[in-house]
Amino acid sequence: MWNETLFEQKKKSLEGFGILSKKSIARFVENIKVLDEWQLHRINPIRFAKQNDFEIGETLDLFLHSAKIGFLDFAYNMICPACGGVAASHTSLDQIEEKSFHCYICNIDVPATLDDQVEVSFSVNPSLKKQFLNPLANVEAYLRYHISANFRKSKELLNFIFSNIQDLIVMEPGETKQIRLDAINVPAYQFSSVENNSAVFLYFDSKEVTKDRIVELSLLSTGFTPVELHLSPGEYEVKVSNRTIATSGFLIIKPNLKKILEIIREHPTVIEPFLTAKMLLNNQTFRELFRVQQLNSQLNLNVKSLTILFTDLRGSTEMYDKAGDILAYRLVQEHFRLLAETVKSSMALS
User: Fold this and answer.
1) Which of 67, 239, 229, 47 is nearest to 149 (CA)?
2) What percent of the chain clears pLDDT 70, i.e. is strictly above it?
3) Which of 281, 298, 277 is nearest to 290 (CA)?
4) What is the mean pLDDT of the chain?
5) Where would I find the Guanylate cyclase domain in this sequence (predicted)?
6) 176 to each of 170, 173, 250, 299, 320, how far by Cα in Å?
């Protein structure tokens, strides 16, 4: 349920921005309001623009002004290019501390480049509408919740993925689950907790016979421990303990990355255009609305390419002398206003 009173207040706040059309605001908020729970989960503004017949530039203005007044929130999602999984989600660029991140679904390292691996998505602020999605309801909901909707996998790939997922295990805080594994003819099992971006890999390739057939694993706030075991083939009882303070889930998977890559080559995943962190930083409206954001001086951000424009007013010193400080200052401000308008109109979505 929407908080109707607050909804109307936020709408009026948006109407207070002279740059935004009132007709567009009315259409925008109503289009947001009719979205279902899944559509409200990590909204892609570029997709929203296409589906609702908005210009992309106007759409970004609406989304960013909505974020400024607390109607919407936005997040920086670290996206695995192989599976589309959200390895981590941040509310500030300051939280992107490493130059790369690890996807524990695919077991690969991914450079944290702002150009393509950091997705910017929007969601409705919980004060207006709380989310009631249950990612732990079943395997399909679990994957849908934690994998970006901008990655549209082929039916062939989805069928193979689901056929290799044995189960979704849900654990309450402090709970221990006992799982029986038949690893006589299975080379490996993978336990992946997507929301914790962590996994355990059990390889049944040891030539020495494993005497103890009970394997104990712990899910901590930092992830699974241990992260890898080499055992002899056979049947095992695996005890997994949730030592976090939250209800958590994990998938039991028979990993086969080689086959997955073969299917992707034959049936490529379609990646829908989405707003990247680089696009956001290049957006003039974002710079104007969120210019006061303080970034850590030690912050290292990876960008493949970036255009920087330097400008200068010829004879500006003489202009101050001849025209006076007030008029000269106004002319300088007009120069930057025209420059900002030019940048905005160029739609630098790259």
Assistant:
1) 47
2) 91
3) 281
4) 90
5) 33-288
6) 10, 9, 13, 39, 75
**Range of weakest confidence among 282-286, 291-295, 321-325:** 291-295
Of the candidates 241, 287, 256, 273, which has an alpha carbon nearest to the alpha carbon of residue 165? 256
Q: What's the pLDDT score for residue 348?
A: 47
Pairing state between β 165-171 and 248-253: antiparallel
Position 347 pLDDT exceeds 70: no
The sign one gets for the Cα dihedral 172, 173, 174, 178 is positive
Kindly state the helix (H) or strand (E) to which residue 74 belongs, with its residue range. Answer: strand 72-79
Predicted pLDDT of residue 327 = 78
Q: Within 13 Å of residue 226, how many CA atoms lie on the same side as its CB?
A: 9
Angle at 100 between CA 97 and CA 103, to 5 degrees: 115
**Alpha-carbon torsion 89, 75, 291, 343, what sign?**
positive
Alpha helices in the chain (DSSP H): 4-15, 22-33, 45-51, 56-68, 139-146, 155-164, 257-266, 277-282, 284-289, 316-323, 325-345
Largest CA distance in the chain: 92
pLDDT in tens, 252-272: 999 998 899 899 999 999 999
Long-range contacts of 342-349 (CB under 8 A, 24+ apart): 343/284, 343/309, 344/57, 344/284, 344/285, 345/57, 347/56, 347/57, 348/279, 348/282, 348/283, 348/307, 349/56, 349/279, 349/282
Over range 303-325, report the average pLDDT. Answer: 71
Summarize pLDDT for 4-22 with one digit per residue, the tens. 999 999 999 999 999 999 9
